[in-house]
Amino acid sequence: MKLIVAIIKPFKLDDVREALHDIDVHGMTVTEAKGFGRQKGHTEIYRGAEYAIEFLPKVRLEIGVADDKVEQAIEAIGNAARTGKIGDGKIFVMPIEQAVRIRTEETGDIAL
Amino acid sequence: MKLIVAIIKPFKLDDVREALHDIDVHGMTVTEAKGFGRQKGHTEIYRGAEYAIEFLPKVRLEIGVADDKVEQAIEAIGNAARTGKIGDGKIFVMPIEQAVRIRTEETGDIAL
Amino acid sequence: MKLIVAIIKPFKLDDVREALHDIDVHGMTVTEAKGFGRQKGHTEIYRGAEYAIEFLPKVRLEIGVADDKVEQAIEAIGNAARTGKIGDGKIFVMPIEQAVRIRTEETGDIAL
Amino acid sequence: MEQVMELSYALDTFYFLISGALVMWMAAGFAMLEAGLVRSKNTTEILAKNIGLFSIASLMYMLVGYNIMYGDGINSLIPGLSFFLGADNATADVIAGGDDAPYYSNLADFFFQVVFVATAMSIVSGAVAERMKLMSFFAFAVVMTAVIYPVQGYWTWGGGFLSEIGFSDFAGSGIVHMAGAAAALAAVLILGARKGKYGPNGEVRAIPGANMPMAALGTFILWLGWFGFNGGSQLQVSTVENANAVAMVFVNTNLAAAAGVIGALIASRIMFGKVDLTMILNGALAGLVSITADPLSPTPLSAAAIGLVGGLLVVFVIIMMDKKFKIDDPVGAISVHGVVGIWGLLAVVFNNSEATLVAQLIGIAAIFGWVFVSSLIVWSIIKAVIGVRVTEEQEYQGLDQSECGMEAYPEFGKK
Amino acid sequence: MEQVMELSYALDTFYFLISGALVMWMAAGFAMLEAGLVRSKNTTEILAKNIGLFSIASLMYMLVGYNIMYGDGINSLIPGLSFFLGADNATADVIAGGDDAPYYSNLADFFFQVVFVATAMSIVSGAVAERMKLMSFFAFAVVMTAVIYPVQGYWTWGGGFLSEIGFSDFAGSGIVHMAGAAAALAAVLILGARKGKYGPNGEVRAIPGANMPMAALGTFILWLGWFGFNGGSQLQVSTVENANAVAMVFVNTNLAAAAGVIGALIASRIMFGKVDLTMILNGALAGLVSITADPLSPTPLSAAAIGLVGGLLVVFVIIMMDKKFKIDDPVGAISVHGVVGIWGLLAVVFNNSEATLVAQLIGIAAIFGWVFVSSLIVWSIIKAVIGVRVTEEQEYQGLDQSECGMEAYPEFGKK
Amino acid sequence: MEQVMELSYALDTFYFLISGALVMWMAAGFAMLEAGLVRSKNTTEILAKNIGLFSIASLMYMLVGYNIMYGDGINSLIPGLSFFLGADNATADVIAGGDDAPYYSNLADFFFQVVFVATAMSIVSGAVAERMKLMSFFAFAVVMTAVIYPVQGYWTWGGGFLSEIGFSDFAGSGIVHMAGAAAALAAVLILGARKGKYGPNGEVRAIPGANMPMAALGTFILWLGWFGFNGGSQLQVSTVENANAVAMVFVNTNLAAAAGVIGALIASRIMFGKVDLTMILNGALAGLVSITADPLSPTPLSAAAIGLVGGLLVVFVIIMMDKKFKIDDPVGAISVHGVVGIWGLLAVVFNNSEATLVAQLIGIAAIFGWVFVSSLIVWSIIKAVIGVRVTEEQEYQGLDQSECGMEAYPEFGKK
Ligand SMILES: Nc1ncnc2c1ncn2[C@@H]1O[C@H](COP(=O)(O)OP(=O)(O)O)[C@@H](O)[C@H]1O
Ligand SMILES: Nc1ncnc2c1ncn2[C@@H]1O[C@H](COP(=O)(O)OP(=O)(O)O)[C@@H](O)[C@H]1O
Ligand SMILES: Nc1ncnc2c1ncn2[C@@H]1O[C@H](COP(=O)(O)OP(=O)(O)O)[C@@H](O)[C@H]1O
What we know:
heterohexamer, A: alpha+beta, four-stranded antiparallel beta sheet, two-stranded antiparallel ribbon, 2 helices, 7 strands, elongated, D: mainly alpha, binds adenosine-5'-diphosphate
């Protein structure tokens, strides 16, 4: 099992969810995040003092998938989240050693 | 060392913290999250237009534990977070290669 | 590639970002978090009833780095985030098996 | 001369209407205060509740309540029901002069009265927050504003038996505020505490309100509106004596509120070591409720003293209600309007030589008894027929979802 | 006797000024209502827009508008332009008495009028929220308040042809509210819907407002301000008859608003199974708009009925506008002020025997036609010259960033 | 005839009371403005501060201040102290007529005055936000409202030496606004800037306020309240001349505020390329402060010009204070009320032929000198005895925690 962590642009969330849905990945956990990277922020002004908003709003997805779904999932996320403009984000894949569905105590791929 | 990531229902947070406390796990980091999965959301209405709130509020726990505590911790979290109703959440266990306590520069199990 | 997860005090974020910048690590993803650990919270009062705010506001950094940058990055984060007072936080290092830059489909170190 | 009488009539009518508009504004004050003191998940509902109750009160009081309260009573206890809203005074009657000549518009009087009943009803709203079914609340509002409030209003202001025995309640510490609190108390007893308010061993758990600026704004609005509430209750401004009286009422109302703030500030600072904002907001209201029973007779200094006691008192009473009696009242309405209302009614005897302790006690007992018992019955009926409380799950999700299907702050994340 | 006339003049002037201050307060009401019903990323901008439009209206109406509306008209259709602001009535003229003697200050009249034009302009603001360039809006505001509004105002209140044919619009259901809505409709047609409001198959997507307490506060403010809007439109309070009339207006205004709430509450409860707060807020406003065309003739019961219909109507119209006509109006301004305004104008004939259906229909057609067409032209010119809509990216980021460079709630995280 | 004099007395008293109620409402305006412009972690505290200071001002001014300001002065510089609050005018004295006959209630006068001192104190509150100990602020409020403000108030309004030399300040651009700003300046000098406001090289860092709708609401409230502030300062409405004057004051006050908005809008648009909402809110207040020294003599057009200059000026002054003088004033109170207050006082000479530049300059120097120096001394004493500033850690955590133990928005997460 792998944990796919994807950092994407917030307005792409629905598209990514649908793309994952299409390949039968239904579960995921999402958190709001701020991203720093190559994409630049913007300047705001407050009472005459300019200041840079350097961070950019991003959404962080965490998706536990069975090993044989990983490539498909990366593909799906990438395609759905891509705008081609700077700041589209990253996908990281990390190993999961154990997974448990709390409700049923099921473990392994079936718990996802 | 392992990183246990647990996605649970928000109102179970205190119970889980106490359960972990009982087995001498005191440190953890918590983030607000939204969950998608089998559990369904609800419908809201705004000026006559219905819309689905599909995500569900969840809480994401991140707990670094020594290897020999992992099973106990999974057990404790699972028992405390279980309601038996759909949406109780997941536990993922991942490997930590290095851990540092910033304050003291201690590393390894002692840093947790 | 490794994923460095650092939990730090919120007001240290800018210092840490600069420190990472200095060693040529520019990308990172940040989320708000609440921390539990040795550091104690404070008490608030509401209409005569005291209650403990046990969690403490923390910031969680997630930084994908190439293997050869890991030690340097840990060092930089630790030094910048350290106040010496309890609650400074933790650094965890975890393996990344795959990394993708969504925009370009680049993978590996170059994707970071 | 005739023009003078017309002018006098016009001034008093205008004074009534402006006072009434200020009291109407108190509805916004209650709405904001309550919206600030509940959790965000119950905010849309409490706003809907407040705007709904004001509307119900306006309509029911026109249709039924006003006619009960100021109709031809059957006797001094049982009011009658006469429909007289509509025709206003003829110019000829006004300029005829004499003691019985009308000196202001009947409709202005109605307007001033209608906003009072809404005030009483608003008090109930806060106490039952975060757990009551919206429709059940509205059902009660219909009965309260059509019958329960007007009946006891008739006893004093409509010329019933309390006015005969000399019960003295200038602007309604008892008739409006304590009456509202009595209905609220009945509601809370039927309804029970919010889930999670008391721990397994009965320990009190704080449930912080979501938006302090809203709560503070609500208090400022109420403070402003109260100048209409008390100031208008002099019922006439057009002579030197009356104008002086209205001015005195304004001054005393303001000072009692100010002293209430200071009282609560001192109490909260001593007891908690901090300045508890919600307590000093309640202190302001306590000062206002205290002086409402008689804002005219006390000197400004006495008015401040009465308000100060109100402000001190309210802090202790709120804590006692919460800890000792386990009466869960999210905004402190029962303490502020009920207990402090009683204090205000009793304090009348210090400054107003015409008031007697006996009459005040009878008045308190009669009003409280009637409103509390009749409310208890009505709430019980509502409970039996449609229920009063949302399900545990709905309460957990918040009433905004179950009652309104709409969030108050849909974009703001949780801590 | 002279002193009596002076006093009468003073009372009427004071009544005007207080009424005007209440109407000025409505500007805050619109600002809060709109700030509550847009998304947080467009909140700073809509606040700037509201405070800016009020200022523009005040200045332009002084410089140009008032002089058009109440100047010496060229004929009953085309107004003139006379500069008369400044000199006020001489005491001698007042005490001279007679039918032509001034009975209140000209400047008070100006003050009362200037806040009306701001109200009309505020209506436009909400409808174009979340996508229009701020400077383009201000450009329109200049023309609307200097020319478009005053021209049609002249037709009725300035003594033009609509007043001659007996068109009856007491406080401006048509002249202020429907006029504002007509300009808003023109704007929305030029501007188009917010991005994301309609799905690929034309399905309506909800775009929830960010702050319900603000929206509710705005509604309460408008409700209060409306007592000045309608109450002041009697134009005199200093006799028994006038005082009674003003009192009637207050009572009816309040009851119509209350009934509007109940109407919308019933409709929303039946249609959605929930109490949609934004709909009942619109219901209150619909009740108020309905009664504005004639708050004096109806009995209180009829006033409630008119408001009730307004409140029911508005729910259906808002949904129809949204679903059927795909007119994206974030706050429902076109429905509340336009469609319900027409209802109010038509309802006049039920209670006011002097009003005729024909005159009302001509008035509606003339005002709507003029304001809609002239607005369409002005909007088109603005669109051609500086554009009316922000870029897609700016709209996505929010107007707070592109227009004001400042966030409304910089600290609060997103859900 | 007697009835006419009574009626006249009643009307003037009522006018005073309503004006005073509007000024009281300004306390809510300051509270909301400041609550919007500070960070969320200091919001509960600033609300407590505002409601507390209004209460302290009300009580101290009754107990001491009013008696100093309007007592029998020892000489034209040193006021006396006479306790006269309580007895009001007898009907007989009123109807006796003559030049000395009282024409409105003393208590109404007191009410109108008491809310002015609270306004002056509110100005200080904003400037010291986010870093001062709450109890130290309250200690200063006691002295300011009991002594510092009343002494200089006596010089002009109480008949002291500034009135003798012809210093002209209609409603208090200097006596209220600049006086408040002088005390605020002294406070900020003693207190220092907020931590993090200036970078290591002295660069200015923006510290955005948490809630723009609150700030905008506060400004609208102040705008409304100012009609009472300036309108009531005519002190009489009951004759044609006075009624006209009050109407002129309303019109000019509104236009100056509107022009202030436009001035700040233009300045901010040119300088920053954006419409800075907080600047246009300050522009509105600057327009109001500018015209307060004389809202009666200018024509409406001149009033707009005076306000426009105020609105332009305030943008530059705020930036200069911030960047050049490193005076950290989170809400811009010193610029808005102080510098623009001086502009207002000087502008009097353009329109009021009785005012002289010399007298205006002496007045400015005397008031500023007295308030600034005496405040500096009082702040120094407070600093020595209990300290004025919270610890660095408390400042970082926010004053809500250290001073009130309560969060303003406990549920809303941080970005
Ligand atoms: N090394 C990294 N570790 C973790 N997150 C990163 C890293 N680099 C970038 N990110 C995340 O990805 C987002 C997009 O990265 P950016 O460099 O702006 O654009 P792009 O990926 O298109 O080159 C960032 O805002 C940040 O959230
Ligand atoms: N594959 C997954 N990866 C990450 N998080 C998941 C995954 N599946 C579910 N979750 C998280 O667990 C929560 C509960 O899952 P759900 O399927 O609704 O119920 P249950 O776990 O009881 O079957 C979800 O809301 C989501 O936050
Ligand atoms: N075992 C753990 N797993 C995950 N996060 C932890 C763990 N222990 C501590 N933390 C995080 O680190 C923060 C600081 O830890 P704490 O024990 O308070 O101080 P210190 O690290 O200085 O000893 C906590 O608030 C929490 O966010």
